Amino acid sequence: MCCCGGLRVGAAHVMEYGMDRYIVRPVVTPADALYGAGDGAGYGASYGAGYGAGEPVIVPVPGSKSITNRALLIGALAFGRTVLERALFSDDSRSLIDCLEKLGFFITYDEEKAEIVITGCGGRIPAAEASLNVGNAGTAARFLTAVLAFSGGTYHLDAGEQIKKRPMKPLLDALAGLGVAVTYEGEEGHFPFTICGRGVRGGELSIDTSVSSQFLSALLMSAVLLPLGLTVHFTGERKAMPYVDMTVAMMAAFGVPVARGDGEGADDGRTYIVKGQFPGIPPVYVSRRYQIEPDASAAGYFYAMAMLTGKTVGVRGIHMAGGLQNDTMLLEVFREMGALVQDTEEGTLLAGPGAFCYEGVHVNMNTFSDQMMTLAVVAAFTKSETIIEGVGHTRFQESDRMAAVAAELVKLGAACEMTEDTLVITPISRENFVAGSKNADDHIEIETYSDHRMAMAFSLAGLVVPGVEILDPGCVAKTFPEFYRVFEKAAYEV
């Protein structure tokens, strides 16, 4: 529950009252840690005691941020009326909607129905000049920069303080190489800046995706504005980029296929090509009705809740295969750690062993790094060490996520060693926990660094460790405004 001036109120009021902290109430006791949290009832009963206490908890999560914002941009560039079902309404999606409206696109939406209707102009930006602020939405920042650079107009772009710190230089340098004029008004390679792409008709460029694959996604989606098409070579250590795969799949769903290099010789599969069927005529997105998948990153918090508490949790609409989101890989990791996982028609169920009743894991999370913080918290309550590799790029996201995770895990009593792209997590001592080394009088303030994923992931730790207080809980509004309402229902009311 949350506390404000002695008045205890529900988590649903975190946003309403602008509270500066969320106090998590533990549900795991030292006895649970010693004997196992589950009682064998419900889904886990057929697998023996220790798994899936009680009836399964079925949790709803909002639509995917990544899919919603891609669909918004593609819908704006399509010809005609696109209807997005089960769309996400959050700070990030609202920032993109606001910018698109200022560019002259007609958009209507119904938050209760989770539906957005956008009328596209067939590859034309209505406003030839505009001044926009993308807020702290990373996808809006990268996607709009590329779209506006290829539109032939002049646009001033600014951003929130968080995004101003995040790198844009690889994308802006690539655009400049194609003939786009970029005028910086502050630090080079960062917001704010003015872009003008008059006379840019297409061509060939290279982009370094070491920091973010969003640069490549932005270029691909925006290439429909270029009469001569676009050939993009990507560099950097990462070859598997599931968010780019998502982009390519969504472009195809709206009628624009993306070709790949042949994968032979020097190309090594590092080339994408977007062009029309006829020379000098760009491809056009086809408007349609499109359903947004539930957010797999958000689902991870509730599957982690099952790992820690011994509950059985299901998330509506999340399935192990067949979707666009690689973050479902976390389910496989939890299975390896000892969870029982079953995909059903309604969604995937996970029966957790309970804190201190599962082993650590050695895993490369490069292709599903948004789940890194969630796994790191679960790893604090294992029976053995956990090694998370391939997450160096998370240093350049909403926060330096590797450093943030390491600092906050130590407050909980775990140990965390950090290298350039690896975290090595030594769990909290089960013996000390059972002996009551942490008690209800302790206050453990978790700094969230204005990072929504830090807030949501470390709230899970408070289900086990007494006294956890999440600072700036309102930052979850970036992707999951109702997180604490759903969290409380899943953790305490069932």
Annotation keywords:
4-stranded mixed sheet; 2 domains; alpha/beta; UDP-n-acetylglucosamine1-carboxyvinyl-transferase, Chain; disordered N terminus; 494 residues
Please write the CATH class name of the largest domain: Alpha Beta
Compute the average pLDDT.
Answer: 90
Q: What fraction of residues sit in β-strands?
A: 15-25%
Oligomerization state of this entry?
A: single chain
Q: Quickly count the helices.
A: 16
Tell me the Rg in angstroms.
23 Å
| Count of all domains | 2
CATH superfamily of the largest domain: Enolpyruvate transferase domain
For the biggest β-sheet, the strand order reads 4-17-19-18
Q: The biggest beta sheet, please? A: 4 strands, mixed
Query: Uncertain runs with pLDDT below 50, 5 residues or more?
Result: 1-18, 39-50
**CA(first)-CA(last) distance:** 15 Å
Helical proportion?
Answer: 25-40%
Categorize the overall geometry: elongated
CATH topology-level fold name of the largest domain? UDP-n-acetylglucosamine1-carboxyvinyl-transferase, Chain
- The structure class reads alpha/beta
Number of strands: 25
